Amino acid sequence: MCGGTQPGQMQSAGDGRAASTAGTQTDSAAGQTPRLSKVNLFTLFSLWMELFPSVAHLKKSQVKKAGLVVVKNMKIVGLHCSSAELHAGQIALIKHGSRLKNCDLYFSRKPCSTCLKMIVNAGVNKISYWPADPEVSLQIEVSNPTTTEDAKLDAKAVERLKSNSRVRVCVLLQPLVYYMVQFVEETSCKCDFIQKIAKTQPGLNTDFYAECRQERIKEYESLFLISNEERHKQILRTIGLENLCENPYFSNLRQNMKDLILLLATVAASVPAFEHFGFYCNGSQQTREMYHQSLPQEIARHCMIQARLLAYRTEDHKTGVGAVIWAEGKSRSCDGTGAMYFIGCGYNAFPVGSEYADFPHMDDKQKDREIRKFRYIVHAEQNALTFRCQDIKPEEESMIFVTKCPCDECVPLIKGAGIKQIYAGDVDVGRKKADISYMKFGELEGVSKFTWQLNPSHASDQEVQESAARENGVQRTTLLDDPQHQSKKLCLGNH
């Protein structure tokens, strides 16, 4: 769906629930595990970057915080968000400069005229934006007519810039493939992070994931979806999308937006801000130095959710894996990410340019080793390193976030690349599974390893208290045993 297209074109994009995947690493076969299209992945990343934990609180103003994904040749080369001083588009200009030429930009909000004129001037190929409230908000109360008028003038300037430039400024929202939302829900509640909580806290209400998910849905709908449909239509008309205001185009647009918000909330809930759980080194490794080197938990969770989203691009019908690499500079930059900057990302797939049917797809249950997929699948970590957009600097803290424990094939690559920290699930650590071994991760030295677990220091305190209670013959009662405190157990803050 593109702003400025004929309504009939949008209808064809919305018909059915199976849009073709754009820019896949290989040609997918029908009937396989549902995949997230690259266009929708970039859109979801832009929304998620808007929610990047702020280092400094933004002042309340008419300008909304925005997330931005910079894409070149269908590969992500930049993840940015607004800072207290600069808009996302301005940050992209500072970070990339003339390298923006021929790039595609995905915004979580339609950019303002100040950003758009510079981006257009840089020679970008395409600008896609989320069709709700723009960067210069049109939802300001009418009690301040000056700001409302300024917002409308900015929207007109944006339209003039759009119509007088060669850049394609549009809305790209592909319908999710059939069964995608259900598949993401099923796999998210079974993922390593949720299962670890459930196993470690046996008395916990089993519905805690569903509660967390509902909180996220409510939060993200209030941020990214205009609840009042007539108000939404009014904003669409103001920003030049009047052709989307008639049904069935408007209802299709709303449904696609709701589906993407639902998917984002479902994945975000799979790495919850839950009590004392987070990414920690094991007790024996948890030194004071490592504690200070590790990222704040909310940032670690945010980056892991990026990796979780990438996993839904997998070409492995059994196990999807996503990986994203970030680094932390010596000083804070102009970006809303503070000192953090994006290095690269990837998911497990067959080699670029190959046909889906070219290679074996069987797993380790097959007796014939010759027809197993292991030797042909390029792992998520390998793709993240191959298609990184920046060098890994030895003097800076670099970190990779992987949805599962890195295997023996990837561990030496991660260490050899100079990555200082690994954040991962540990579901397979120390195991051998036919052709694939996960032994080296546990033995790895010189790299800090943070896995999803109960905070070791909290666990130690808990064990001491339980031991003392047993010695005194007292049965220790936890909050989990008290139904009045069940709902208070969840830490349902942002992300």
Report on this structure.
This protein has 495 residues and is of the alpha/beta class. The protein folds into three domains: 33-174, Cytidine Deaminase, domain 2, CATH 3.40.140.10; 177-272, no CATH class; 275-462, Cytidine Deaminase, domain 2 (3-Layer(aba) Sandwich). The chain contains 16 helices and 13 strands. The strands form three sheets. A six-stranded mixed β-sheet has the order 6-13-10-9-7-8, sandwiched between helices. Helix 5 links the parallel strand 4 and strand 5 (168-170). The radius of gyration is 23 Å and the shape is globular.
Radius of gyration: 23 Å
What name is given to the CATH topology of the largest domain? Cytidine Deaminase, domain 2
Low-pLDDT segments: 1-24, 26-31, 463-471, 473-495
Estimate what percentage of residues fall within beta strands.
5-15%
**Strand order, sheet with most strands:** 6-13-10-9-7-8
Task: Please tally the β strands and state the result.
Answer: 13
Structural class: alpha/beta
